Amino acid sequence: MAGAGKAPVWVDLALVPLVNLAAALVVSGLVVAAVGQSPLEALEVLVTGAFGYGEAIGYTLYYTTNFIFTGLAVAVAFHAGLFNIGGEGQAYIGGLGVGLACLAFGGILPFPLMLLVAIAFGAAFGAGWAYVPGWLQAKRGSHVVITTIMFNFIAAALMTYIMVYVLIVPGQQSPESRQFDATTFLPTAKQAFAWIGVDIAASPLNLSFVVALIAAACVWVFVWHTYVGYELRVVGKSEKAAVYSGISPARHIVLAMAISGALAGLVGLNEIMGVQHRLLLNFTGGVGYVGIAVALMGRNHPFGICLAALLFGALYQGGSELAFSMPQLSKEMVVVIQGLVILFCGALEHLFRPQLERLFARPLPART
Amino acid sequence: MTATLALDSAIAPPNGGRWAIEAIGIDKWFGSVHANRDVTLRVAKGSIHGIVGENGAGKSTLMNILYGYHRADRGEIRIDGKTADIGRPADAIALGVGMVHQHFMLVENFTVLENVLLGAEGGALLADGRAKAHAELERLGRDYGLEVDPDSVIEDLPVGIQQRVEILKALYRGAETLILDEPTGVLTPQEADKLFHFLRVLRDQGKTVILITHKLREIMDVTDRVTVMRRGAVVADLATRNTSKEDLAEQMVGRKVKLGGDKAPANPGAAVLEVQDLHVADDHGKPRVRGVSFNVRAGEIVGIAGVSGNGQTELLEALGGIRPAASGHIRLKGREVETRRPGLTARVLRRMGLGHVPEDRHRMGLVHGFAAYENAVLGHQDAKRYRKGWLLDRARMVNYCGDWMKGYDVRPDNPLLEAFSFSGGNQQKLVVAREMEHTPDVLLVGQPTRGVDIGAIEFIHKRLVAMRDAGKAVLVVSVELDEIMALSDRILVMFDGRIVGEVSPETATERQLGLMMAGIAEAT
Ligand SMILES: Nc1ncnc2c1ncn2[C@@H]1O[C@H](COP(=O)(O)OP(=O)(O)O)[C@@H](O)[C@H]1O
Ligand SMILES: [Mg+2]
Fold first, then answer.
1. Does residue B321 contact residue B273 with C-beta atoms inside 8 Å?
2. Bond before B183 cis per omega within 30 degrees
3. 3-class SS at B203?
């Protein structure tokens, strides 16, 4: 559509998402009202549950950490024109890498070195798990959407096997590894603040949140400020232009998938090294899939992804609070609300955009 | 209308006829772009009316307003003398206005008949409309000499015939006035001649045709009147017989233009691009280049003429390292080029000193969504001069790009704008700038001026000749004979995957070249 003028940037970047979010909340409110509950009360519980007190904020940011990693993973692949649905499996296998590093080197390496090794393992395992679909797409033309979904299932099966037959503590019932050496534990926010003499509420929030923010900055630099990132974007925009200019699409597809998988793999840092301190089953809990929504809403830009991850972190934390303190709203209802947010902010992105853009379009210049 | 306009018509239509279409005082803004400024266009019934103007002059905008894609901000449209309110294409169709787009809007795997019926099925049951349409198509075919087999599938038809189907579609919907926006951009000269023949038949049967083109020869050949647009405004409205190509070119650009330029005789040196018995297949494995040998020497422009689809595209792609060769040899500056690794050779070749302005500027030459400065380094993004250590030096890239935009007259010269927002001619100048400014010794140029306006053509030609004079080797592939004749020091004619002859531009005639391109005559 040819608008009369161009709307200012803030309309695009801030107003449209906010209006979409508001619309999602209004519809959610109708749903809540439909089951006989007060929408306003629900909203209050949701917001207080997410940001109302120290522990809540800690939990929100802990969830946010995972979503930043998986959102970035989706975005990097997206810039190379790939739709990586496999964040879930890559996070799972990445967690395995982190766990193995902690099991192998815990107590041997000093913490800073341990952290670097764990990051390297998590990233490498995640990257390896995404490399194969990438290679299949590049060399054999098997679509990554299909293969990455299949790899999610394979990852689940593989992890079950490894946990049940290999890493389980002998004589134990549940398929979990032994606890890592205490020197590997990532410092929590509470510990970190205690060092500078500030007391905050206990929560699972840990150092990996900082790693996630650094990762977001690195992705920004990589995609827009290195020539390899440039080449990746060329491949994503036009394979023909890539071949014309001497950029190998196959190589960059594999590279983008590997980087994407590495980012997803770092979820293990948060979950395994930061919170669980042992390897176990199903610690990813769908964060790979949420990453798709996060990237969509964050427009595949690291900054947007951090904001969208925060929103989803808040929805997760506030949502579980909601299910807890308003039992009439079941856990499923919370999922519905999250779904509505995804629907309005992602899929129905253009619902209000044209109207808003027209409303705020700069006035036409006068005739000269 | 101001007194300075070269309007030689009074308000009444010629010979006591009527106006088919009148657009009066049309203004249209796109944001800050004033695409149509107080435009008045009157088209007499039963005439062929040409509209010329550089890219971005506002021709398509005016037509889109007539056809209901855009609404004018100001002004009035009259059809058959009556004020018309055209809000969408359906309104225009109902008023008997039809449009043929440059990019056809046909369903590729439907038959001709199905395409014609699409959207005009005339009832819920297809069979009814189908029989009627069959009869009607046959009648239209007979009346206008537009015969097409109604049952052939679109994707099997050559472009020229597909265009015929578009015209039939419009006529089937009762078009009295037919708008063709740059219809010949995709046609060979022969196909274009056929098209003009139908247009004359249509006119002689009382239909009205509005023809938009930037090719002045076509305007002179086929139109009765011509309107010249420049920067959104009408600057002249003339009877075709009272004007000339040179005159129109001057009106379009606003100054005198010289195509081809005067160039000094070539002073060729050693062969820097040598091609030996090259064979190249297309994506479907069909051999397209079948044993081609030639060379290009430093300091000369070699032109390859030919009707499109005779292997030129595949030849260029193989030379540019985009498409693997099936067999044969390519030597660049004496070094054998490994031709069988697609994707990697283009990079190697660039490092060896090859520049390549691709035929397909939209899909190859530029990256959609990239700013001009990003496009200005495509293929050289890893060069030291665009980097500060690991990082890209954006300020540097923007600087270089800004300089080139000034030097190559790319308008507007803002490196931060998205390259696709420029008009075709400016996009092409940007690509040409990029390929020339990375100091190649050999420059491949495919369709240097396709979809490019006169001012830009003149400019690009001058640059190519300057390149040659600087001792570089230039290979130009073009389907435009004028261009080949104006630029080349030697002309090779390609037909059916082979080079069928070499002629010198001094002695060659268009007729002789045309026959060679059709595979009929040999070089003399
Ligand atoms: N849909 C549109 N939105 C914004 N600008 C447009 C649009 N269509 C055309 N323009 C601008 O209007 C001017 C005239 O364009 P156009 O009518 O396509 O020119 P022409 O057909 O003569 O080449 C150009 O500057 C072009 O960029
Ligand atoms: Mg146009």
1. no
2. no
3. helix
Residue B2: what pLDDT? 41
User: Is residue B159 within 8 angstroms of chain A, CB to CB?
Assistant: no
Q: What is the average pLDDT value for chain A, to the nearest integer?
A: 90
Task: List, for residues A93-132, the tens digit of each pLDDT value.
Answer: 999 999 999 999 989 999 999 999 999 999 999 999 999 9
Q: Report the predicted TM-score, pTM, of the whole model to 2 decimal places.
A: 0.78
Per the DSSP assignment, residues forming a β-bridge with B53 are B229
Separation in Å, CA of A250 to nearest CA in chain B: 9
Going by alpha carbons, the residue nearest to atom 16 of ligand 1 is B58
Torsion (CA) B109, B110, B111, B115 in degrees, nearest 10? -140
A246:B349 CB<8 A: yes
Distance, in Å, from the CA atom of B8 to the CA atom of A22, rounded to the nearest integer, reads 61
Q: Is B33 in the pocket of ligand 1 (CB under 6 A)?
A: yes
ipTM of the complex: 0.85
CB atoms within 10 A of CB B524: 9
| Domain chopping of chain A, boundaries | 68-302
The mean-pLDDT minimum among A273-277, A352-356, B361-365, B482-486 falls in: A352-356
B320 lines ligand 1 (CB under 6 A): no
pLDDT band at A202 (very low <50, low <70, confident <90, very high): very high
How far is the C-alpha of B42 from the C-alpha of B23, rounded, in Å? 6
Assigned token pair, B322: 């985009």
Structure tokens at B434: 């990029």
Per DSSP (E only), the strands in B204-244 are: 208-212, 225-230, 233-239
Structure tokens belonging to residue B450: 């396709």
DSSP state of A137: I
Q: Which two tokens stand for residue B88?
A: 């969408």
The first and second tokens of residue A5, run together, are: 């003028």
Residue B260 pLDDT grade (very low, low, confident, very high; cuts 50, 70, 90): low
Q: Is A109 helix (H, G, I), strand (E, B) or coil?
A: coil
Stated as kind and residue range, the H or E segment containing B251 is helix B245-253
Q: What angle do CA B478, B482, B485 make, to 5 degrees?
A: 85
Q: 25-64 in B: which are within 8 Å (CB) of A?
A: 27, 29-32, 34
| Identity of the amino acid at B402 | G
Mean pLDDT, rounded, for B217-222 = 89
Task: Provide the pLDDT for residue B268.
Answer: 92
Strand order in the sheet with B442-446: B354-357, B442-446, B473-478, B301-305, B490-495, B498-503
Ligand 2 centre distance from Cα of residue B232 (Å): 12
- In angstroms, the CA A96 to CA A160 distance is 11
